[in-house]
């Protein structure tokens, strides 16, 4: 909620606390930890810190692929978010490939 209001510092503090608790309770390679990592990436993307966003998204993607496999909607969402980082950074071709990959996974998961 904080990041939607532009309170990025508060959002990062809250999400960092959440990540710490998730890792303590479930471990680094748990879906809850991966989702929090992705949320931290979203805040960094909103701040324009593309390098930090990419770092958090990449770790989230690794965990989600390990937990769910390649063809899962959660994997698709992270791929699309990574595409957003590339898009914002001017790497539109790379972004489009990731958008298409994410969309294909979403369609597959919905059997469209």
From TrEMBL:
TPR repeats lie at residues 34-67. Keywords: Repeat, TPR repeat. It comes from the Eukaryota. PROSITE patterns: TPR. InterPro entries: TPR-like_helical_dom_sf, TPR_rpt. PANTHER family: NEPHROCYSTIN-3, TETRATRICOPEPTIDE REPEAT PROTEIN (AFU_ORTHOLOGUE AFUA_6G03870). This is Kinesin light chain. It comes from Ditylum brightwellii.
């Amino acid at each position: 909620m904080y990041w939607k209001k532009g309170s990025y510092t508060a959002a990062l503090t809250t999400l960092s606390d959440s990540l710490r608790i998730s890792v303590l309770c479930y471990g680094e390679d748990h879906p809850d930890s991966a989702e929090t990592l992705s949320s931290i990436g979203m805040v960094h993307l909103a701040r324009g810190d593309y390098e930090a966003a990419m770092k958090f998204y990449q770790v989230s993607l690794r965990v989600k692929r390990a937990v769910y496999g390649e063809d899962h909607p959660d994997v698709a969402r992270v791929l699309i978010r990574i595409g957003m980082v590339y898009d914002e950074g001017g790497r539109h071709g790379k972004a489009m490939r990731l958008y298409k990959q994410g969309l294909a996974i979403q369609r597959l998961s919905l059997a469209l």
